[in-house]
Amino acid sequence: MYMAIETPPEYGGSGLSFFASILTIEEIARFCPSISVVCDLQNTLLNTLFLKLGTEEQKNKYLPKLASEFTGSFCLSEAEAGSDAFALRTTASQDGNNFIINGTKMWISSAPHSGVFLVMANADPGKGYKGITCFIVDANTPGLTVGKKENKLGLRASATCEVHFDNVVVPRCNVLGEVGQGYKYAIEMLNEGRIGIGAQMVGLAQGCLDATVPYLLNRKQFKQPLYSFQVRTTLPFPSCSTASRSNSRSTASRYELPSPSFPAQPQADQTAALQLPGTNYPPLPFLLNRKLIKQPLYSFQ
Questions:
Q1: Residue ranges of the Acyl-CoA dehydrogenase/oxidase C-terminal domain (predicted)?
Q2: I need a surface site. Which of 115, 213, 224, 250 has the fewest CB within 10 A?
Q3: Are 286 and 211 spatial neighbours (Cβ–Cβ below 8 Å)?
């Protein structure tokens, strides 16, 4: 149940800890960083939001399906609201017992495969970010359309698309949490997601190391393995990986550092090691995926 690690068994999940989620995300990233992104978002954002904020009716309706039937998508970013996410322009105008959502979300992961979207929209633009509210929108709701998949540099197995909302009617019972509190929920959940990004970087670095070392041991130049040359033996791959893993797991257990993925990112860069086997060998996909992993939840520069 890697898509419902922390979800309690009564909702179809494994009932494990946040730390277990981080270990799972790290291990998956060793082999497929794209799937680790999906796993991270599903566990640290989608499921957690439902568990912490959902009514019993909402939990019973969506958590079992998120555990076994479909992915979900978290819709926050927009064309003019990336790092400044709370400058979003998507609105949710109240109409009796309904809200009518209009706007466009950008860079939404898993959108083509999602059965439910958690949409951040402003229910009271006059209050600025304090009007932002989280809405549950089913994928088959009239007016919701998913755009074409972005042609990305890496993480290509994790689809990323625009999502358009054209007079999408959402009943008030589909508000997740409280009206006007969406910005608080987003801040808290994105912090969990960033810890997941750190785990992805560690797993990616380990996967690259796993792919590179056998090549260095078997590839011969001047009648000896590449690994026997002195420069190869002094490169800090194992120590970098170990240090980043220690930091990532420590942060997951304490859940208090604001950006734990930072130390893991340069290590993932160093471990990509394209100069050792060359560009047409296993580490290349790791480098391309690494460049994309850091982007979803914040800007690094």
A1: 180-231
A2: 224
A3: yes
